[in-house]
Amino acid sequence: MLPVVGAFRPWADATQTAIGRLPMTTRGLDPTDTRLDGAWRFRLFERPDEISDDAVVGSAAGDEWMTVEVPGNWSLQEGVGDTPHYTNVEMPFEGPPPTLPERNATGVYRRAFSAPRRAPGDRVLLSVGGADSVHIVYVNGEFIGYGTDARLESVYDVSHAIRDGENDLAIVVVRFSAHSHVEDQDGWWMAGLHRPVGLMVRPPSSLTDVRLGADWDPSAERGSLSVRAEVSLEALDEGWSVRASLTDGAGVSVADAMSSVDVGHTDTYRFTGFAAEIDSGDLGVEPWSAESPVLYRCRIELLNPEGVVVDSTSQRVGFRRVEVVGPDLLVNGRRVWIHGVNRHDHHPERGAAVSVADMRADLMQMRRHNITAVRTSHYPNRPEFLDLCDELGFYVVDEANIESHAHNWHVCDMPEYREAWVERVARMVQRDRNHPSVIMWSLGNESGYGANHDAAAGWVRRADPSRPLHYEDAIRTQGWIDGGRHATHVVCPMYPTVPEVADYGRAVAEGRADRPFIMCEYSHAMGNANGSLADYWDVIHAWPGLQGGFIWEWKDHGVRHPEAGDDRLHYGGMFGESPHDGNFIADGLVSADLEPHPGLAEVAWVYRDVATRVEGDRVVVENRRSFAGLGDLRARWTMTARDTVTSGDLDVGEVPPGQSREVPLPVNVPVDRLGVFTVSWETREDSWFAPAGHVVAWDQHVADLSLADDPATVGSAPVTSTASGVVAGPDPQLWRAAVDNDGFKLMLERAARESKGSQRLHRWLSQGIPTSEPSQLIGYQRETVGDIERHVFDVPASLEGLPRVGVRYVIDPRFTRMRWFGRGPGENYPDRNRGAMVGIWESGIDQLPYLIPQEYGLRTDTRWAELHDPDTGDRIRVEALDQPFSFSAIRHTAEDLYDATHAADLRENPCLILSLDAAHRGLGNGACGPDVDARYEIQPGRHTLVYRVTTRRAADRR
Ligand code: IPT
Question: Where in this chain does the record put each Beta galactosidase small chain/ domain (predicted)?
Fold first, then answer.
């Protein structure tokens, strides 16, 4: 049995949140401290009660011991044999809380370490960065402590247990605990020591905590800094003092102040010997914002009565004020747009054990796509994440590690979990309060709304009134207009429809609503998704009170396992686990390997900082930034009309933040034939996220594409009458390999039963869309006159909302390049194409960008498309003769895509499949949110597709 705790089993007791753990402070492990990362000895037991006491003391050299990496999730490490388990809402074992599963894998981590260099009286603190789910610490066989909350560090004083020379450290990690019921986030259940472990040495008298209040007064344009240093003194003598010195980025002193630690009782009941407070007002400093993340450094020193510095720490400081004023969330007195995403700590091989470089890579990829806000869904990240956000400029909603989704309405009112609630929220605040990037505290995710929330909110309201509170379920359960005010200062719903968002804006405009509206989750990026993203932002820009939101989510959580035998990214169920939620875990804007999915281009466009539009003979430039001008950007314009392209620089002068400026249109936009006027904004200088010339924003003014003249028909080459290169077709086509938003093909049964996600796929299956001859379902006629093809489709009312209406060709695979005039360069869909520019594009054949095979590769608003054989110079060309069409040319049929369950299992078709659509269904957000908007549904009635198809043999040109 485990020494000391084995008999009373804290892991099974929700009231037991910690034993022997020190209070959380802003002073965590820093780079100069001793790290205990690397190879540890490791042994896995079936359950915590089975661990013999000799497992945590004595030799760890026997055969039953293996080696694992720390930080790491043992569930992803070789030889351990305890694999990940994916569930979203459900618990991976039966409830109710605090029930635990029969088998409860428990790992014993062991390693030797040498006592760190220390002077007599110094204390040695052990920091356990993150253990999933709970952990127990022994040093040299002596019980040290017990800690919960898998996503925050636990610090223990181990001074008394350490001896000179070599020491032995054992950390027992229990995979499931009573606290797992409040860590039921949508993600992999993976266990282990996934964050760094280290030792900190502190002098006998020390600064235990340093709290900084760095405010910026926008009206006075001055900063102020309050420093509260908590001290622990060896002896309560008079004469101790604390000094705070503020320096700017260049190391130049800005302010210096001192305060004594008053160890006397200054008045009845009040003892001040535990802290020193310093207030410096009226500082001539620059403010911090995500647009201009100016940081200072504050060095705090503890001086003994002789004036000698005995301890010191330094913290970064950003001066800024966050407040909710009426329906606006203000940073330094101004409204800011929340161009956000939800981010999990995730790495495809290391799971939750992300490195600082991984986090930086995430932020760089985000910033390249104009994302400047992150919700740390659904737990506090490594502290270095916030350091990066402070430094690089991101607004952060810092979220407590609380989700009791499976028992939403229950746990939040269970008194035995009250301490867990308050402590998880409070410890996050205690750790992160000095970070300027943190603009709101979130009480967690999907945990209902109960007394435990109000207890936690009450603590924060007193301890850090400088930041607003954020909690979604408070407004979900009690209403957007007036609900949940104690737990949230903002209305932060998930997955509302566009009209619902507009309704809230209208309520603000009419004085019926008075809180800022910031969606904590919206635009679910599962597979080929993010329909209507631009529609959301049209509404957000149009109404007061609406400030943006956080897309769900940043990255897919696919994982590779060293024992899988291949390098496939796994989703739920692939480890044989049950229950599971399949590919609901593959719902990111980027792949698990950080490759952008096509939807990210739409995000970059929608989140752009500068918008340009043509009004009559003027160009109107709108600066959407809150603090900065546009001086760092260069604007270029291009006018494409028929065969002429003109271009130049657009000189708009300075455009103050939040304002618009007009300049004359530099060129005539022809209305009688197709004209495309484009303005793009690119960076003038290299930045941390991209080299100079990086395009951050663009807009187009496009003459009506449906009336347009084709710029490239001029001088078209001679044609052969038969379309050589065409292997088969055209044949009518109604089916697209369902996207995740159409329905979950991998979880058909379950989705039907639980009415999860869009139900459209079920309807299509029952209508026989994937299996029937299209001409048996709809009226279809084809007419060929010379090289002109005319297809007429009559869709009966009963088939409203089809996947697509069009034709398909099978093409000789030697055609490996495509060129087209329409939207591009990346794939785009009717409700996700505003971020795709109209132009003449050229590319190779697309590869499936999604983990789960599904429809991909479409290009909308196409006037003409060509396929080229680069070896022979042969070309197949399709020109729209009435409406522009959508097309894709990929190496898979819809049937192949639909049948395959993993990208790695998808075989390429020997031929190229060219699809031409008169209509194609939008993407919507049906997997977790509103279905396709009616505007992007295929209506019943007549659809026509008329085009000329020609083949040019290279020989014909000679
Ligand atoms: C919502 C969750 O907050 C998030 O963690 C994730 O699961 C997302 O959905 C779907 O991917 S909860 C949902 C039931 C609305």
Answer: 713-950
Give the phi and the psi of residue 913 in degrees, each rounded to 5. Answer: -105, 115
CATH number of the domain to which 837 belongs: 2.70.98.10
Closest CA to 889 of 818, 803, 940: 818
**Model confidence band, residue 673 (pLDDT cutoffs 50, 70, 90):** low
In this structure, what DSSP letter does residue 832 have? Answer: B
The structure tokens listed for 21 are 């753990």
Could you tell me if residue 929 is inside a domain? Answer: yes
Query: What separation in angstroms does the CA of 467 have from each of 286, 307, 440, 778?
Result: 20, 36, 5, 59
The pLDDT > 90 percentage for the chain reads 90
> So what's the pLDDT on residue 672?
58
Whether 918 and 881 have beta carbons less than 8 Å apart is answered as no
Q: What span, in angstroms and rounded, lies between the C-alpha atoms of 227 and 636?
A: 48
Of the residues 317, 333, 348, which one is the last residue of a structural domain?
A: 317
pLDDT of residue 266: 61
Final residue of a domain: which of 288, 317, 346? 317
Indicate if ligand 1 lies below 6 Å from the C-beta of 886: no
Report the alpha-carbon distance of residue 189 to residue 49 in Å, rounded: 21
- pLDDT tens digits for range 861-894: 999 999 999 999 999 999 999 899 999 999 999 9
| Protein residue whose Cα sits closest to atom 15 of ligand 1 | 928
Note whether 109 and 70 are within 8 A (CB).
Answer: yes
Asked whether 446 lines ligand 1 (CB < 6 A), one says yes
Using the predicted structure, report yes or no on whether residue 715 has a pLDDT greater than 50.
no
Whether residue 642 is contained in a domain is answered as yes
Which residues are part of the catalytic machinery?
Answer: 446, 521
Task: Looking at the structure, tell me whether residues 728 and 851 fall in a common domain.
Answer: yes
Cα–Cα distance measured from residue 179 to residue 177, given in angstroms and rounded to the nearest whole number: 5
Average pLDDT of the residues in 899-921: 96
- Counting the structural domains of the chain, the total is 5
Q: Report pLDDT for 953.
A: 80
Asked if residue 547 and residue 614 are part of one domain, the reply reads no
Q: Are residues 476 and 456 in the same domain?
A: yes
Q: Is position 531 within any domain?
A: yes
The protein residue with its alpha carbon nearest to ligand 1, atom 10, reads 928
Do both 237 and 309 map to the same domain? yes
| Predicted structure pTM score | 0.97
Q: Please give the pLDDT value at position 518.
A: 98
